Fold:
Amino acid sequence: MHNKQKDVAIIDLGVGNLFSIERACQAVGLKAMITADTARIELADAVILPGVGAFANAMATLQQIDLIPVLNCLYENDRPILGICLGMQLLMEYSEEFGQHQGLGFINGTVKGLKREVDDDIPHIGWSPIFGDSNTDRWDKTLLNCFRNQTYQYFVHSYYVSPEQQNDILAYTCYSDFSFCAVIQKENITGCQFHPERSGNAGLGIYKQWALQYGLLS
Amino acid sequence: MTIRIIPRLDIKGPNLVKGINLEGLRILGEPESFAREYYQQGADELLYLDAVASLYGRNSLTEFVKKTASAMFIPLTVGGGIRSLEDIRSVLLAGADKIALNTAALEDPQLIKSASETFGSSTVVLSLVAKQHDDGRYTAFTNNGRDDSGRDVFDWLEQAVELGAGEVLVTAMERDGTAKGYDLELIKKVNQRISNPVIACGGAGSVQDVLDVIKLTGVKAVSLASALHYPLANKRMETGNILQSGGEFKVIQDSLTRAQLKGMDLAELRTSLMAQDINVRPIDDSEPVQTDVLTDIREQVYA
Structure:
């Protein structure tokens, strides 16, 4: 019996290199489409929430195109949601960027500025290693399945997420001696601070494993 | 975090070109194959500059960007002739991650502000082409090095960053294409002046040049053109891969003879940097995925 091929909606907030996310999905065998259409997003088997720019602007855009109720619905119905970079930050409760702004609240915690913690160039732009904690089994069957510790991914950001529950942190990275969360994961919600679609083969592996984790590949 | 190595491709129509002091452009071959080679060798990012954009008043790289962006999963910055938010949007939609602004930004600095507000600061790179005068001052040049804006480089730099530029690409005009090494004084001063990331450009000829700029100026990103292109073009001619390189045999041969540049390939550069304890992205080691899955990806991506 053949099941319908699963598809992923890449949410179009009008900014960011969505083309590269779409290409990365295609490269690993995922059927993906870039869209801002709430009806299509609601029907998608999984959703990628990308983002570039300011937290408040992105939340305002989500509000404007009526996507917040749809995302809430997807969240409650266990549909896989993958947030990338700013998209991951939007999954949190609050951000401290330019005031205090409310996020989607799917993961407990806030978004904070790197500037306070880091005595180095801001934004953090470049390739940094991601690593886990001592519990090496935690990566099994997640988007980090089969990943060696300390693989490099491409980061470009000035803010980082600070989840309240340690358990929601799947991987860390380190910049200028400051370690912070690089990957969040809780049930159907996943987030990467880095850009896997700009991280060469190591990044493509992230998309592949995320798709495998949620059974999105035929 | 690792040092970023960013090959710069100057593109004129269907050709990869290279000049000296930003003039006298010589054809080196078909740009896509160079870009692909650098990607496979582990380039951390790629930079495409439209070498004649100022002549036509626009950037004409969108087709080339589309063609290459679909198979290369690393950050791509595009510059040359980008003059408006619409220009930026088309280049980004074609597959670029960042855009570099020079002439248009000097003519209307508010463009930096509106670009960074619309597309994000990290999308906007200030391209600074600097030339030193007899009195020691550096001024910013526009139109691919043709015109002197008269603006002091360091004042302009600060203003641009304040307006929202995320990174600064600084090119020393007098060093570019000469293989005489980066302008260490300029780059050090630029790096010290701002807390945003700086990409050093112009003059790399040897591995030592790259080592020097990293160790002596504190930059964490370096761009190279001649030092990589000429040896690669040469290698292709020697192995008879002229057709693949796409350039005309005689033209390339002339270019290479005139350049007399030894240069390096990316693998050699990375190994040498690592040997000097400089943090460089490991390539072969970064394949975390099971072999069969990776082969899948490779087949689809590199087909």
Observations:
- DSSP finds 14 helices and twelve strands in chain B.
- The radius of gyration of chain B is 18 Å.
- Confidence is low (pLDDT under 50) at residues 285-303 of chain B.
